[in-house]
């Protein structure tokens, strides 16, 4: 597939996807989402890739779903095409995805970032769910993921008033894990993804699956799920290598793929 709305690059074991619709502040339209999904499929299938970075421009990670594309749609259009269901592909990635957010992450842009595993932000980042200004409300997990990330008070405040949250507030309330000067953001995101990609890929994937389970189940069931996966890591060559390397005071060489 030829890409017109994203740029794709690979640095060692890190796949990098850059949203690239500069004239629309990276507004997410159907074509962009198909390209993004295709790039994710490729990186997921590539055994050389251990982690991914998703980023945008300095001005916008993404200013939301493309309002001009949505404007003519009626209820039966969105119902029959199950509008937005294909936009959640990234939340089903089994390999980790780091979102590097500079500038606006609004509406679907904020939801897309929240579908990633770690959000790193530039000091210029602005997060918001302004759909209420359009006579609608977040439709791709905003009411659910934002609430889980920052709690009811902040989520209601943002979703009902359309107020934007800056990077400092987003870090304080736990929406983002770290904030960097804008010109260092991408390097830091790639470094973070590289660090993840150096680990055992199956252990990383299981750890991700287990953390995500915390959002889907009770504590007792989640702990049980974690225990089963934890036990299964003892079947990995990487677990043998990791523990042997510790005992021998050397760096581990993880190879399971
Ligand atoms: N859709 C379409 N075009 C957009 C969008 C958008 N969301 N955002 C910006 N653009 C376009 C503008 O129309 C403008 O185009 P043109 O030059 O042709 O007029 C260009 O990008 C530059 O934008 P501005 O001139 O407005 O730039 P400013 O710096 O003045 O303002 C803002 C920046 C504040 C970000 C402003 O553009 C804005 O408010 N944008 C809309 C933000 C918004 O409401 N987002 C929510 C959209 S609804 C949504 O996301 C539903 C989610 C559905 C699920 C998605 C799943 C992942």
Automatic annotation (TrEMBL):
<dbReference type="GO" id="GO:0004300">
    <property type="term" value="F:enoyl-CoA hydratase activity"/>
</dbReference>
<comment type="similarity">
    <text>Belongs to the enoyl-CoA hydratase/isomerase family.</text>
</comment>
<dbReference type="InterPro" id="IPR018376">
    <property type="entry name" value="Enoyl-CoA_hyd/isom_CS"/>
</dbReference>
<dbReference type="InterPro" id="IPR029045">
    <property type="entry name" value="ClpP/crotonase-like_dom_sf"/>
</dbReference>
<dbReference type="InterPro" id="IPR014748">
    <property type="entry name" value="Enoyl-CoA_hydra_C"/>
</dbReference>
<dbReference type="Pfam" id="PF00378">
    <property type="entry name" value="ECH_1"/>
</dbReference>
<keyword id="KW-0456">Lyase</keyword>
<protein>
    <submittedName>
        <fullName>Enoyl-CoA hydratase</fullName>
        <ecNumber>4.2.1.17</ecNumber>
    </submittedName>
</protein>
<dbReference type="InterPro" id="IPR001753">
    <property type="entry name" value="Enoyl-CoA_hydra/iso"/>
</dbReference>
């Amino acid at each position: 597939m030829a890409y017109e709305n994203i740029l794709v690059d690979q640095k060692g074991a890190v796949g990098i996807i850059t949203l690239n619709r500069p004239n629309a502040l990276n507004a997410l339209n159907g074509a962009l989402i198909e390209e993004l999904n295709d790039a994710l499929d490729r990186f997921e299938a590539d055994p050389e890739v251990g982690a991914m970075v998703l980023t945008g421009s300095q001005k916008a990670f993404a200013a939301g779903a493309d309002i001009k594309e949505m404007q003519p749609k009626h209820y039966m259009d969105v119902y029959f095409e199950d509008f937005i269901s294909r936009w959640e592909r990234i939340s089903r990635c089994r390999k980790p995805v780091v979102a590097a957010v500079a500038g606006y992450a609004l509406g679907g842009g904020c939801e897309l970032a929240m579908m990633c595993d770690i959000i790193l932000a530039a000091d210029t980042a602005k997060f918001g769910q302004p759909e209420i200004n359009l006579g609608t409300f977040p439709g791709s997990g905003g009411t659910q993921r934002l609430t889980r990330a920052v709690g009811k008070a902040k989520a209601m405040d943002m979703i009902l008033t359309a107020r934007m949250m800056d990077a400092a507030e987003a870090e304080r309330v736990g929406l983002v894990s770290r904030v960097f000067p804008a010109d260092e953001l991408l390097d830091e995101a790639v470094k973070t993804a590289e660090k993840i990609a150096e680990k055992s890929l199956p252990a990383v994937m299981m750890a991700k699956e287990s953390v995500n389970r915390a959002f889907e189940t009770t504590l007792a069931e989640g702990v049980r799920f974690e225990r089963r996966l934890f036990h299964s890591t003892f079947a990995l060559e990487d677990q043998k290598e990791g523990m042997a390397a510790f005992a021998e005071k050397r760096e581990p060489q993880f190879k399971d793929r």
